[in-house]
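Researcher: Quick one. two chains, 350 residues in total.
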Amino acid sequence: MASTSNSTSSKIITLRSSDGEVFEVEESVALESNLIRRMMEDDCANNIIPLPNVTAPIFYLVIEHCKKHAEMKDNKEKKKELRSQGEELLKSDPHTYSNLMEAVNYLDIKSLMDLTAQWLADFLKGKSPRLIRELLKIKNDFTPEEEAEILERNRWAFD
Amino acid sequence: MFSFLDTRSLASVGSVCRSWNSAASDNMLWQLQYALLFGKADNCCENKDKFGQHASDQADEFSCKKKGGVGPVMDVDWREAFKRTYIGNSPRRSTSNWGYCVHCKSIIWLSSMNCTSLHHHTTKDENRPWKVKPLSVHQVVDYLLGDPLSDMSSSDSDSDSDGAPFAEQRLPKLWAYSRHIGNSKKPFLYM
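Model:
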């Protein structure tokens, strides 16, 4: 069990990742997620909130990012820290980073979404489709004919 | 995420896999790309006046549609619109345009209407950009053929089969360029 709470004053929300791990998160952090906010507003969140699309390691990253992001609002150092951490992860493990982004998207955390998306976009700029597939572990599900057709259709952008 | 990408990268990520392809084909994305590169379609007439830039005729058509409320905006294939405008108006090409300088009555190269590095008098008259009029490729070709070569081109062009090769000999790049542009629907209107 991973506890991310260090305050006694704030309400604690309990969440469960897809692989069954239970997280206790401060309400203020959990509410960064619009998905969790909506669930709580609709009163579907009396007990443990299940997050079927997010695994524990990724959710841990999300919480970490959320906390840093909440702190960085008035702290330039934290902002730098978050950025360098994001960029480091992106460089060392782009696949995990893209999973983090998917989770952020699923949890609907607007503030983090913009940041992570911008970084990933910067990372992908100028990279070939083949390299992108390799880095993010994406399967090429085109037939060779389809792929050739798409390349031909997009050729104007590269001429 | 795709909205943060530039045109080439957007075209590139569309070839990664099926789901990315459909995401990268999103109409809104291309509308955004269009707005970023060529200005909002609503303002394209304004931009044309202001910066001497030209959006494609099709874009004008779109903006009229949009303004008049005749067709809903979703009807516009922004990817196609972007492509057309991009091909005719890619940054590489539009950064170096021709302009007619009223002062010395000659054609000059200009960058976004500020030919400060090229012409002494325009630096003084920056507030009066009408002194340099942007020209279409066709106008430049007409000028080059019509002015210094008027006697030859007028007599040779129709009767003599050497007319076109002659021009190509003299102005191979210009001709190649003008033909290329000529493939799009209409010649560009700068003024």
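Residues 1-40+80-93 of chain B form one domain.
Researcher: Thanks, that's what I needed.
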